Amino acid sequence: MTNVKYVYSEDLLKYRFSDSHPFNQMRLKLTTDLLIDLGVLKSEHLIQPRIATDEELELVHEPSYIEAIKKAGNGDLPIEEYDKYGLNSEDTPQFVNMHENSARVVGGTLNAVDAVMSGEAKRACHLGGGLHHGFKGKASGFCIYNDSAVAIQYLQSKYKQRVLYIDTDAHHGDGVQWSFYTNEDVMNYSIHETGRYLFPGTGAITERGDGKGFGRTVNIPLDAYTEDESYIDVFKETVEAVCKAYKPDIILSVNGVDIHYLDPLTHLSCTLNTLYQIPYIVKNLADEYCDGKVIMIGGGGYNIWRVVPRAWSHVWFALNDLDTPKGNIPQTWLDKYQSSAPFPLPKTWIDEKDDYMEIPRKTEITEKNNNTKLRILEWYK
Question: What is d(CA 66, CA 145) in angstroms, rounded to the nearest whole number?
Fold first, then answer.
């Protein structure tokens, strides 16, 4: 298992807007400790995340924006400039040492890239990454720097790779899309809840790229309340068709777990059954088309107790060809965190679905999603 690397340091928890903000990297520690208590994550797997250099950040971000983030993190940015850089919203408020702690997220993803490209690792993951909403010169949607976009450009510039970017977060990865909208050497695939009712409101099926990049952007907006069967059917068929058509050198995937029905910020109705399957589908595509080269990063997921640790564990399981464990969650983990949790922690790997509501419009939603799938398959088969 040592040929798979896991980027982690508790310093990643310093990417934190406030105690009440929904983006809480405590979910990263919960997941990592769960994997350690299971005995599947050991010290030889770990890579400490580095802080990305300004030159690396400038692969995507404007120098003036990087300077503004440095000033904001030190309290030196004039308040009247906050709006210009997206720092005046509840989503991305200023916090202390913002630059260093944001650049560490980017550096961690670049660590994972270097581990795979140097041959140190066959596969790698950085669950602290996946900040796909950041723009070239503006923060957005909990994201200061866009580690996904920087990693894609880094793979292009340093390693000359044709990248397939797969984003299964419930929110459309707008920052990544607009960074590569005219780029023919990046295939940007995003399956997400329709932007009709959800931030950021983009990601329509008609957004397909421009110029040389036309056809290199693939958006699959799913209807609100999409459930497991429809999600997996649409995802599996379309992502396989896109991968086969594009023939990438490497896959970078964002594994947001906010498609779960218990996520407080979204409106999809998937369960852990779907979240357990997604990383295996991506890993198998990498095995078939990229000689196994794949980097998996984090993304959204705001039910940090009942959903994220069990779902994100499967990113590591998939990368290591492990199945879902049988039986109970380790008692050591439950004992460690039950006193901090606002309700009883799950004791097994099975999704309880105690409060899962059957979807009245299931047939209509499935049909609408199927029509979207057929349009994509028409383009890429």
Answer: 9
